[in-house]
Each structure stands twice: as C-alpha cells, then as structure tokens.
Amino acid sequence: MDSEAHVNPDPRRQIPSVDALCREVGRDHSELPDWARLLATREVIEGARDALEKLLSRGGKPSEIRQILDIDWTETVAGRAARIAAPHPRRVINATGVVLHTNLGRAPLAEGAAQAAAEAATHYSDLEFDLASGQRGNRLASLSRKLQAISGAEAALAVNNNAAAVLLALDTLARGREVIVSRGELVEIGGSFRIPAIMERAGVRLVEVGTTNRTHPADYTAAIGPDTALLLKVHRSNFEQSGFVAEVELAELVEIAHAAGLPVVEDLGAGVLGGWHAPGFPSESEVRSRLDLGADLVCFSGDKLLGGPQAGIALGSTKVIEGMRTNPLARALRLDKMTLAALDWTLDALLEGREREIPALRCLLEDPGVLEARAARLRRLLEEIQELDIDLRIEGDRVPVGGGSLPGFDLESVRIALRRRAKGPSPSRIAERMREAPVPVIVRLRDDTVLLDLRTLSDDELPDVADAVRLAFR
Ligand SMILES: *Cc1c(COP(=O)(O)O)cnc(C)c1O
C-alpha cells in the first residue's frame, strides 16, 4: 500500500484531545504539578495545530505532516511541563568571563549581603522605625549617610534601578521644560532603556545638539534658552566612538551650565564607589571624581561596578536630592527592604576596604596568576575524566566587563579551550548540553572550540563545570 494512504484525510483529527493527553501525562508523570501539566498540554496541542494549519495551507507533503503528528505526545508534554514548573531564576555557572552579564543577572550578591537581605525579609525590622526614640523613622537615612561618606556627595538617594533614578531626576528637575543632550549621547541600553523615550515619559522636551560624532561647547551655549531646565550627560555604556569625534567633557559642561544658572545631571550608568582600583580602569567610572568635577547629580546602577543589588543610586546637591526625595513619583520607585539591606551591607564592605568580599569586584580584581592556577586545577579535574577524547588547552583571553560598563576596555583573563578530537556533536550542541547539566554552565564558542573562561568561575564551581563537560562531551 502507498504510504500516503496512511494519512487521514483530515490530519487535524489525529491531534489528541487536551483532556485525554493531559490525563495520560498525569498517569506517567505523577511528579508534575497539575497546573503545569495542563498548560503544557494546551501549548503543545496548540503548537501542533498551528504548525499543521500552516502546512496544509501551503499544501505540505505527507512526510512533513507526519513530522508534526508522529511525535511522542506524552513525553513532549511532560518535558514542557517540567520546564514550566521549574523554579525561576535558576542558578547557573558563568563561564563566559563577562563579569557583569546582563542576561545572567549582572552582579551576584556577596554572601553577607544575601544574608542581610534574608534577615530583613524573614523578620520584623526597624525599616521605618527609630529604635532610640520609639518614633517613626526614615527608611533611607542610614543608607544616604553611607553613600555620602563613600562618595563625598552632599546628599544621596537610592531607588529601584538606574532607569528609575534618571526618570525621577528628569521629572523633578525638568518636567514641562527643555533638557539639552548631545546627539552622540542619545543612547539605547539593553533594548528597553532609550534616553529620548525616558525623556518623553518624564514630560521633558529633548533638545538635541551637535552631531552623532561631534559636539562642541558652542552647541550647548547656543541651545540654552528661557525654557532650559538642565544639561544632561549620558555615558556611552555599551559602545565606543573613535575617529573624527569630539565631545564636551564634564568639567566644561559644568562651566557652561553654571554660567547660565543651570544644573548638570550625569547618567553615568556604571559607577565605582570606594577606594579600589583595577589596573587600566577608565577614571570616568569613579563617582567621586564626577562629583568633584561639579556635576549637580550623578546617577548609576547598584548592580554594575558597585557589585550590589539592582538599584539606582543618585548622588548630588542637597537641593536636587531633596526635590527628588519629595517628588510623589519617588514612592512608586522606592527600594524594598531586602534590596536596602543588601545595598547597606555592600556599602559597608566598600567603606571598610573589603571590596574583595563582593563577588563581582573580586572577579574584576583577580590577577591573572590566580586565574592560571584555577585553570590548572580545572584542567586536572577534566583530565581525570577517562572517557573524554578532547584536546584541552590553557590559553590567554581578553574579556569585556559587560553589563553596560567600560566599553572598549577589556580585562586580561585565562581560559580553557576544549576541542573534540573525533567527530561528534557540534559545538553548539555541546553548549546546549552544558546548559542541560544539573547546574547549567554557560560557555562561549569559537569555531569548533568550547571556551571556559576562568575569570568568572570560582574554585568551588570547578567540580560542577567538570561534571557538565563530562555530560556534554560524552
Ligand atoms: C545600565 C544603564 C542604565 C540602566 O540602568 P538600570 O539599573 O539597568 O536601570 C541607564 N543608563 C546608562 C548609561 C546605563 O549604562
């Protein structure tokens, strides 16, 4: 008999019903929660129906139709249900070498910071209560003092993230008025944060000056008018300009603005607090120096070069910060108690010179000698895996800092390059298998080689990395 005869005249009728399939999955996989099983069944069936519909409308071949219908329905649904029910976010191991990886949650918290957050979360606290007087207290007073102490700022405020800090600053200082920005600084960060869009939402009229590659002092001077509220400087966090370029440095921008009686706000993106230095780090990232140059307000993220939780830090003059603090919008953007506790711990560590207790900063500051020793340790673990037929090399590496921090600057690092000797699964399939390990490992690929960078790996993660390699290269 011709095989086409096996295809039902209407293949849509071969798709199982939601009820029947869901029940069958429940029989084989009682470990799956009901809600996830039902959602997964609906998604799988709907997906098959859509795919079939598309195929039929363009007259698909029977073999293509069978590809959709001849699947193990139960196991497909069970796999999907397990993914739906899995906790999120899940811990992963970052072997990319990119310390502030936005997709991997940017800065991991220090153990102490996480404990402080857990303590605040699981107990009552003096969040807004003054223990000395027994009266109502201020939730941000202590944090503000620490931020002032570490930065030299006159006043300080922290909100939910840096996007919120910029929004609050614009709304407070420039609502219904004009803000002047260089065309070279109308940036987009991570797809959803765009300077012109945030300005529009803050009810601010954007006045663009200069060109994409060159902006001069006279461009700002000429644009200042009776409606100007402030001059904004935005850090180019994720790209670099080179060639025929000119920008107005902060000091000069401050001079122009102050001569006209206007404030300067800087969206620094990533800011360094505390006395630590990494060799070769650009000095623009040091918050204290930006304030010393006369910026009236500097905003940056808590989970970039500060190494703390997601937060937006605003440092500046008392007048500006008070305006932001009393803006009704501040209530909608405020920090929760867990973040506050984690940030407080992180600032203590920085104030006391314990920056190496902060994981992101430890990763950034680690010297190549330590990374080489770690690479040798990982190599030994990998060489113990008998069945592996891979070529294994320790190489020098250069990695970006990531997370919209220090574009164009990279750190010296050390990596292990793994290449299969015999034919086998493709490197992208190996990377996928490493993500399926009990603790998923995120790697970089280069041609036919899998790269494990040691800068973002800690010693206690090495056995898990070796496990993932064993599973992936098998
Ligand atoms: C990262 C960044 C932001 C956004 O900060 P979030 O803390 O992610 O909200 C805004 N502006 C600049 C210049 C940045 O680099």
Q: Quick recap of the structure?
A:
The protein is α/β, with parallel strands linked by helices and 474 residues long.
Rg calculated over all Cα atoms: 27 Å
- Unreliable stretches (pLDDT < 50, length at least 5) are 1-5
- Residues in β-strands, percent: 15-25%
Question: Which structural class is indicated by helix and strand composition?
Answer: alpha/beta
State the total count of DSSP E strands: 17
Q: How would you characterize the largest beta sheet?
A: 7 strands, mixed
Terminal CA distance reads: 42 Å
Mean pLDDT: 94
Helix residue percentage? 40-55%
Question: Can you list the strand order of the major beta sheet?
Answer: 4-12-11-10-9-5-8
Record the SSE blueprint.
Blueprint: H1 18-28, H2 34-57, H3 62-69, H4 73-85, E1 93-94, H5 111-122, E2 129-130, E3 135-136, H6 141-151, E4 155-159, H7 162-174, E5 178-182, E6 188-189, E7 193-194, H8 195-201, E8 205-209, H9 217-223, E9 228-234, H10 250-259, E10 264-269, H11 287-292, E11 297-301, E12 312-316, H12 318-326, H13 329-332, H14 337-351, H15 359-365, H16 368-383, E13 390-402, E14 405-420, H17 427-435, E15 441-442, E16 444-446, E17 449-453, H18 462-473
Parallel strand pairs: 1-15, 5-8, 5-9, 9-10, 10-11
Antiparallel strand pairs: 2-3, 4-12, 6-7, 11-12, 13-14, 14-17, 16-17
The structure holds pyridoxal-5'-phosphate.
The site of pyridoxal-5'-phosphate has 14 residues, from helix 7 and strand 10.
